[in-house]
Amino acid sequence: MNNNYLVAITAVLFSCTAVPAESLRLSMEEAIAAALDRNFSIRIQSIEPQLAEEDLRYASGAFDPVLESEYRYAREELSPFDTDDETASFRFGIGSTLPWGTQVGAEVNTNDRTTPFDPFTGVASDSVSSFAGIVVTQPILRNFGMAGTYAPVRIAEESVSVSWELFRAQVMDIVTQTVQAYQSLYFAQENLRIAERNRDLALQLLKDNQRRMETGVIAPLDIVQAESEAALREVSVISARSFMLQARNSLKALIWDEPNTVIDLHLEILPPREPEGFSPNISRDFEMALVNLPEYLASQSSLEIRSIQLDQYKRNALPQLDIVGSYGQRGLDASINNSLEQTFRDGDASYSIGAILSIPFPNRSRSAEKVQAHLRRNQAELQLRQLEQSILLDLDNAGTRLTANWNRIQAARRARELAEKSLQAEEKKLQVGTSSTFVVLRLQGDLANAEIREINALTDYAVSLAQYERARGHILQVYGIILGKDS
User: Fold this and answer.
1) Which residues contact 252 (CB under 8 A, 6 or more apart)?
2) Residue 135 shares a structural domain with residue 273
3) What is the DSSP string of 355-387?
4) Which of 93, 110, 186, 458 lies 20 to 30 A from 249 at CA?
């Protein structure tokens, strides 16, 4: 990534521990840092602002001074007079277009004409005419003023802003996706742990029942039930392990950029921090989104580009009227040196002024361009209003999910606590022979389901919180991420 677009990250949060390339053990913040540094999508998108900067430099080049030199030689054969007419000319100048449309040039030119035999005077002639001065062309209608001539530069500047905001949006998306992938992997790991423990409980119950059957405490049917349940729970373990491996690959895709080692990469994650409660405020966060959300800022810049283009096409539809003038000194002598010396010392004043008028008729092409530009600007305005509505609805939906998931945590946690107590009580009853294997197995499954629901609620809440921060354009600030252009 170019230094101008490197992601600068708070050192305290994002200092990854040095580990071998084939093994990573990451916290949430370190996973985000790895994604910012190594994610392919971010690195690909980071090139776009650089390209836009070069487009701006290209557009600004229209005002660069231009050095020009020209040499011409011509010879005409005058057959009736058995003689030749030779002409040699040289011109050197420097010119530039000013931001308000004026074209200014300073030039020196000489014209050397040699006629061995002049048919009208009957004598040979050799004259060198030289000129040194300034030539100015000023548009009056089309391309007049900075708004007309500077339009390509202004469009390129807004395009740089659009490209930068799209890059920032990509970074926000990857951060949000990394949070989601991290939480999904954590849930998958916990789901596998609970499934393995649930299977182990069934196997342990099977062993206990076998000992009880040997002493005649329980019937053989209890053995069959425990054995059947252990086999079913092994199926759940297999499915949970497969789900975890896929979740791990999803996170790898976001934080790793070496295709040759991505499969063999050993990735471990630390448990995420317990999420804190957050109260959405749609009206407040909508105002924040309009200031921070890159998609909205890019849409505003796109509207500005359409407005500049509309003004540009309006001017292009005008007739072209240019005032052209020059002023300088002219020298005339038989030799180049003397002619140039006269020009720069005491040559005769030479000036000119004129006008060039061009009126397209009936001007259908320019008129169509102007109408199209007007329609595109109206279209951009409607798209901006549509985006505002979409932002508001996205915030409302994200806030609804956030509140619901927080309430889910409380309910799931209470259900898990009750399931633990129910299982503990039933296990004690089984030990004294007042309960059955069937009931204990069912309560073990109930506890496992309650634990999974609690973990699922926690991870869903963390993801919905990240999505809400993304919807209001605040996700980078949450994780202390500073992009190059913002620093």
Assistant:
1) 262, 265, 267
2) no
3) EEEE--SS-HHHHHHHHHHHHHHHHHHHHHHHH
4) 458
Provide the whole-model pTM.
0.82
Indicate whether 279 and 340 sit together in one domain. no
Could you tell me if 321 and 143 are in contact, meaning their C-beta atoms sit under 8 angstroms apart? no
Element (H, E) at 320: strand 320-333
How far is the CA of 254 from the CAs of 24, 37, 164, 266, 468, in angstroms?
A: 14, 10, 21, 15, 20
* Sign of the dihedral defined by the CA atoms of residues 417, 418, 421, 427, in that order: negative
Identify whether residues 118 and 211 lie together within a single domain.
no
Please tell me whether residues 119 and 257 are part of one structural domain: no
- Label residue 296 exposed, middle or buried (CB < 10 Å: 0-12, 13-18, 19+): buried
Residue type, 264: D
Handedness of CA 188, 191, 195, 201 (dihedral sign): positive
Kind and range of the H or E element at 71?
A: strand 66-78
**Token duo for residue 266:** 């050993």
Closest C-alpha to 88, from 71, 76, 108: 71
- Using DSSP bridges, classify how beta strands 66-78 and 23-26 pair: parallel, antiparallel or unpaired: unpaired
Positions of the chain with pLDDT under 70:
1-21, 76-86, 114-125, 214-219, 222, 485-487
Whether 75 and 17 share a structural domain: no
Tens digits of residue pLDDT in 13-69 = 334 444 445 788 999 999 999 999 999 999 999 999 999 999 999 999 988 898 988
Please, are residues 118 and 86 in contact by the beta-carbon 8 Å criterion? no
Kindly give, in sequence order, each residue whose CB lies less than 8 Å from that of residue 209, ignoring residues fewer than 6 positions away.
218, 222, 223, 226, 437
Report the distance separating Cα 336 and Cα 357, nearest Å: 36
How far is CA 298 from each of CA 36, 60, 168, 256, 301, rounded to the nearest angstrom? 21, 22, 10, 29, 5
Judge if the upstream peptide bond of residue 116 is cis by omega within 30 degrees of 0: no
C-alpha 457/C-alpha 446 separation (Å) is 16
Please tell me the total count of domains within the chain.
Answer: 2
**Whose structure tokens read 């190059």?**
484
Q: Are residues 80 and 131 in the same domain?
A: yes
Query: Are both 390 and 258 inside the same structural domain?
Result: yes
User: What would you report as the CA-atom Rg of the chain, rounded to the nearest whole angstrom?
Assistant: 40
Distance CA 146, CA 464 (A): 48
Q: How far apart are the first and last CA of the chain?
A: 16
SS3 assignment, position 151: helix
147 in a domain, yes or no? no
- Domain extent, residue 91, equals 66-97+102-142+320-358
Same domain (yes/no): 231, 117: no
**CB atoms near residue 283 (< 10 Å):** 8
Q: Domain of 426: which CATH number?
A: 1.20.1600.10
